[in-house]
Amino acid sequence: MGRLIDISWPGLGVTVVAELNDERNPELCEEFWQHLPFKILQAHPVVSGASMYAWTPIVSSAPVHHREMITDCPVGRLRYSQSTGNKMSIQYGVGLEPLAQPVLGQVLEEYCHLLPDVGKAVWNNLFWQKDLIFVEVSAHDKAAPAGELKKVKATTDTAQCFLDAAERFLLTEPEDLRNIRLGRVESTGTYGQYFTAWDFANGMLRDYIMYTLYPLLTLSKTLSVSDFSKTLNEFDVPYSSYLGVSGLYQLEEYAGMLRTAIAAAETKEEIQELLRAFIKYGNRLCAWSYQYFPWYLGMFYNRQLGGQEFPGRWNAEKV
Predict the structure, then answer these.
(1) Rounded to whole angstroms, how far apart are CA atoms 207 and 97?
(2) DSSP letters of 229-244?
(3) Alpha-carbon gap, residue 48 to 44, rounded angstroms
(4) One Pfam family for this entry, by name (predicted)?
(5) Residues in the chain with pLDDT < 50?
(6) Is residue 223 included in any domain, yes or no?
(7) Total domains, the chain
(8) Which residues of 43-60 are buried (b: 16+ CB within 10 A; e: fewer)?
(9) What is the C-alpha to C-alpha distance for residues 165 and 152, in angstroms, rounded to an integer?
(10) Distance between CA atoms of 276 and 176, rounded to whole angstroms?
């Protein structure tokens, strides 16, 4: 039997117990366990169907042996996607994406009936209500030893700077993101409107952190130190420079610090520590950007399927 964890949504008054997939993904589960307890913003996918996910305060590169298609996941399945932001997902209904993700565990059967109501509440909140729903994850046995890795400090000031920023934004929205979504960045957005600038920043931030820097972390294990610095410069500057123009000034500054520190690094271990710390910071930005993005604009493009209660307002036949 795998170790048990509690997953709680205090704002919704719900707690469930889940079993980790210790037998088939032992390294992934151990890495996850070592970072307990944590409290993070709860989100919901806008593409892949009836599940909830949240960006964890972990950057995992543990080997994975057991994956499962999202479309095949039963209610209560826990997944952990390293390559799309280190997100923990909980299935509460039908999955839509035919993609395989690592299996983290399973909510115990006696709690699975609670998940659909939680999932729909989280969906409504992400889609249009925009309150803050947090999820807390901890060891079920409160006497169990956990969290040893969480106390480790970075070996360089630069990496520690990134980690400190990630900690500050764990439960608080970064001011730069707030300014973007409120239209306070006057240097971007054609003819005074700022939705397009907000949209571009949201999408590019996701692609930068989740689909570029995380793969570079994997690549850092094979490239030489000097070759990796050159590779990082080629990939990083187009993203971080544009995001700086969009209003993410701190991110642009930190990206410059990252490139400088990696250029001076002497070992792959130094490079990986810097990247992990920066990705932790970046994942927090992704979580907050995702939380407040105006997904409710989807009301204009609604097929009225899958429990969506908002009628569509866009008549495609008149286009």
Answers:
(1) 19
(2) HHHHHHHHHHHHHHHH
(3) 9
(4) Cucumopine_C
(5) 314, 316, 318-319
(6) yes
(7) 2
(8) bbbeebbbbbbbbbbbbb
(9) 16
(10) 22
| CATH number of the CATH domain containing 26 | 2.40.100.20
Same structural domain, 291 and 229:
yes
Of residues 258, 287, 79, 45, the one with CA closest to residue 166? 287
Q: Which of 71, 97, 131 is the last residue of a domain?
A: 131
Q: Clarify whether residues 65 and 178 are in a common domain.
A: no
What domain range includes position 290?
A: 152-296
Same domain, 158 and 279: yes
Q: Is residue 126 located within the same domain as residue 212?
A: no
**pLDDT computed for residue 299 by the predictor:** 81
Residue pair 104/301 in contact (Cβ under 8 Å)? The answer is no
Pairing of strands 49-55, 4-9: unpaired
- Bin 105: left if φ > 0, else alpha if -120 < ψ < 50, else beta: left
Please give the C-alpha separations between residue 38 and each of 55, 86, 229, in angstroms, as whole numbers: 11, 14, 33
Instruction: Give the position of tokens 């980690």.
Output: 163
